[in-house]
Amino acid sequence: MELIWFAVFALLLAGYFALEGFDLGVGLLMPVLGRTQEGRDRMVAAMAPFVLAGEVWLVALAGTLFGVYPALEGEILFGLYPLVVAMLLGWVVRDAGLWFRRRLDGAAWRRFWDLMIALGSLTLSFGWGLALYAVAAGPGVSPLHPVGLLLGALVTGLFAWHGWTFLGRRPPGAAGVPRPGRDLLVSGALAALPAVVVLAGGAPYLLEHSAPSSTLSVLSVMVLPFAPVMVAAQVWVWRTFHPGKGTDRIPSFF
Amino acid sequence: MEALDLARLQFAVTGGIHFLFVVLTLGLAPLVAIIHTRWARSGRALDLRMTRFWGQIYVINYALGIVTGLVMEFQFGLSWSGLSHYAGDVFGAPLAMETLVAFFLESTFLGLWIFGWGRLPKWLHVACIWLVTATAYASAFFIMLANSFLQNPAGAVVKGDRMELVDFGAMLTNKALIFSFPHVIGAGLFTGGMVLVGASAYRLRRRSEETEFFTGSMRVGVVMASIGISLTVAFGYGQFGGVQEGKFNGAAGVPLGLMMEGGNLFSFVVLFFMLPLIRSLPRRRWAHPLLMALTPLPFVLAILGWLAREVGRQPWMIWERLTVADALSPGLTTGMITTSLIGFTVVLGLLAVTDYVLIARAVRRGPRDLALGAADDQCAPALSL
């Protein structure tokens, strides 16, 4: 049972990197590729239907951390206190930018929130690199080690590239050059790679600190029956908002 | 102030802001689902516009519920690692279910509903908003389950220096849960109903051209508020059977008393004034300022209720098992908590004010040029892609 829950935990972390990675990447690219307001609107519209279904992977991951690894939850989050606070604020500001940017007319309003989306995405992407290093290096190590900074830059670069291949799947002229869907799978897998490596290294430690079997049984009975529904809901999102369906004509809510 | 007080203040501030938006979400989600279903059956243009207008209010409100919820979830690990160390094997389970099942599905289906206008078949689209409602209520249930465990740790025993889950059934039938959950749901319906009433009163008082639209909305709101306040009051009193002695003797007695007085008074206004006059109320313009003035009060009462419940638990984090002082993360310094308190309070406070301004503007603008559900032919130029 510990193995099943480790697999769930690993899938959630890797899934977050692969599925939310391109949303953060698009956010990172907004000041670079979206020089005009219209360009940025197109970029946000491209990722908008996927953001809500992507960021929940991290919400679910944190819940699983609490439920399955309660002994580590406080240790990891508290150990990275300033970093977690900064990443949370980045996440909050990025989300607020998406929800708010079209709620008022006015160029300055939208430009401000577009900047917040970019800054929030940068804080989260770079923060993930630092966090992965700090978790792998063990307690008491500052994330601001040269290796941590390097990993921060690497994750940021991977997310940006993943976002770029995502934008490439849109119809010609929407953003970037058209690219086949296979590229997105490759960039998604590479975006998830840093998380997978750290997970592989930390697997024995995580398994050792699993919650007792009575807790895991309750979780299994309550959660696992819904797993097919959760997968189906995610697949439904991808089928509905597939870029090939000519749905880009409909104005975006974000 | 010491780190403990600051950490409690941080949880109270973020939790308070969170619930202001969540309580409205719990009320508006079923309202929007009902109106959307009505449109799917009738095909009337008025029902469509009502779905899009109130849906847009619901969605603007939802944004703050999400971002404050993110901060809440991580705060357990940041400030209260003593809780997960001592009782994580028990307390973590409902939180995991809330995030892993309920919120995961809620957010996914909400994305499908918001962006699915014009893309999903009609009845599948209706199904999405009902699934959002169902999972939102499941979320509320698991959070209340976790909170009720803190109020009354049923179903768990202390083994060594940790608590262990022995009887999940006892956790589900916790006497601190069975009346408080419907109480919270009732408060949500009541708040959502009163927001419809207050916003409609504002529009009707200004003699807006949308008389039919806001007359219908006000009546729906009055019905929902009546159902909500009845549930809230009934299950509010029902809770007293299961409360530990002395819980509300101290500081918690003040918010509790205010909430009960306010709730009783409000139930008289709703059940003996608004409900009997439901046919004519939209025309009685003299009553509209009163209805507008009443709109913020359900939010105040909801916060008072939470204050009573949470202050009444002090000094315990888990009743008679773990104190809040022992639940504090060891090594949390005043500097750390001050910095994060300022950061979260300033950012979430500004966003909350912004969100309310946006909701007020959406009400003032009325049901025209709505972004939610806009097709490319009917969208205002400023909003088109």
UniProtKB/TrEMBL annotation, chain A:
This is Cytochrome d ubiquinol oxidase subunit II. It is a multi-pass membrane protein. InterPro entries: Cyt-d_oxidase_su2. Keywords: Cell membrane, Membrane, Transmembrane, Transmembrane helix. One of its GO terms (biological process) is aerobic electron transport chain. The chain crosses the membrane at residues 6-32, 44-72, 78-100, 112-135, 147-164, 184-206, 218-238. GO terms for cellular component: cytochrome complex; plasma membrane. Belongs to the cytochrome ubiquinol oxidase subunit 2 family. It comes from the Bacteria. It is found in: Cell membrane. GO terms for molecular function: electron transfer activity; oxidoreductase activity, acting on diphenols and related substances as donors, oxygen as acceptor.
